[in-house]
């Protein structure tokens, strides 16, 4: 009897649910349009009564399904897509998120995506690459950096063991010139453990070659195989991040044109306040810029940066670039120097104040659109040296920050003029002399070289005032050269 009552209650409930006049009709709706018409699905429902086979069959019920709002996807095209793998990857991220991505995330994917990042699988430096850096211009640059490192080592009390770290070493040209120039100073080179912070396997191989490295086998199986640069008999190792470099030794860090490649967030002043610029996919499937409708996580770094700026400085700008990774890296450097001793040298193009809108793309030595064919051009932005100073001073009272000064002032104080004259006397051909003069001008000059008599499109442009140098050192060592 109890079972019969339960089955009857179930039947009554189904009748109420599926009755044609019920307000619980199934209606599926979507914001997308569809040409599919409304249809009726007829169905019958019956309940089997195990203990009362004489009960009359249940009446049929109908379900009304409104299909008018269902989304009908377009017919799939099996034709080849013109998008690169990186473009597909970026669009996939945006589609998965259901909205735009930050400029910083776009920049990071474009430059260091493991499969298609600009820096990962190619040699982008030098005359045949997309841009030329100071070490590629002249051997004098790496030699002067070696003079600075050796001077700091002297101020540190000539420790027997030192970590010499280069962030983003490119092809290894700077470090090769540094070690070659310092090879006569055995006490210095014998103290060095060189650490190259590089994430690109392609560039690691180039660095290995330019440093003329060999792998030394040890008869002791408990001792790991060492890689040695034959330029100065110095051990060399590679790491993906600065944090992987062993701590505990005094450390000299070189960061030349490294901070400019760190991803930046861009903010624009709007009627509702500061909004972050984002990258989305437009209707024509191209990338475009949009403004965030609400505050984003990086807004916290914008607020910190604005606190460091004067009111009159903020009033002059309608856009601000903020680089959280530069702030975090600076604090990592400052903490390492504070605990282990040593110093860091940062040379890059930038400003000693707020950076407004500097993000740029360079392909084959020419400026191109930032969103054009991502992964085929270098992206970089001006370095905010004031932000580096504040970040270092905020995290440790044991470090001091010096500069920035212009690259021309920095190299001139270290003696590049005397080195130039010595090399000029050794030139045996007009071509060698012209090459040396061109390199020298690019390092310390300002604007176009007046001595140039070659093709106008190849006129050397001086980087002497566009690039700035800053040092972060442990206070125990005093003021480093040439910032006294």
UniProtKB/TrEMBL annotation:
It is found in: Mitochondrion. Belongs to the NDUFAF7 family. Its main location: mitochondrion. Gene3D superfamilies: 3.40.50.12710. The keyword Transferase applies. Residues 28-84 are annotated as: Disordered. One of its GO terms (molecular function) is protein-arginine omega-N symmetric methyltransferase activity. Keywords: Methyltransferase, Mitochondrion, Transferase, Transit peptide. This is Protein arginine methyltransferase NDUFAF7. The keyword Cell inner membrane does not apply. Arginine methyltransferase involved in the assembly or stability of mitochondrial NADH:ubiquinone oxidoreductase complex (complex I). Acts by mediating symmetric dimethylation of 'Arg-118' of NDUFS2 after it assembles into the complex I, stabilizing the early intermediate complex. Residues 28-46, 53-64 have a biased composition (Low complexity).
